[in-house]
Amino acid sequence: MDSNFLLLVFSIIFLWLFIISYFLWKALVHYNKLGKGLTDKNFKTIMENLLKDTQAGKKDINYLKSYCDKIQRDGLLHIQKIGLVRFNPFKDTGGDQSFILSLIDGNDTGVIISGLYARSGTRWYAKKVVNGKSAEHALSDEEKRALREAKPS
Question: Which pLDDT value is given to residue 151?
Fold first, then answer.
């Protein structure tokens, strides 16, 4: 046979063995990573441990999802929107020393606090707000404005 032909055949065989050896080496490295820390390194044990870890991870993720949902629901009950309006209700006093403060949660429920300053003294009033509307008393124009400031569109 021709020596060039033999050289070509051996080169192809050598190249083929090199490629197969490379993929075998990659598989062994991957297998050793999977079995790292195990005393009994058989494939069944490795897969059982991976499955157990995956199931534990899924359980943790489901717990965290439900916990985040609970925090989000509870967060709606905290004050999230604040509106403040200063005004002068009486013409005989100077400056905007009276104010209305609306404190509203995520469900548009809360309280409107009014502080009316007059020369004779300061009066405080509070009105309950449920779903963005006064629950018991009519709102003044300033209180409605404070409520609108607390609930931006």
Answer: 78
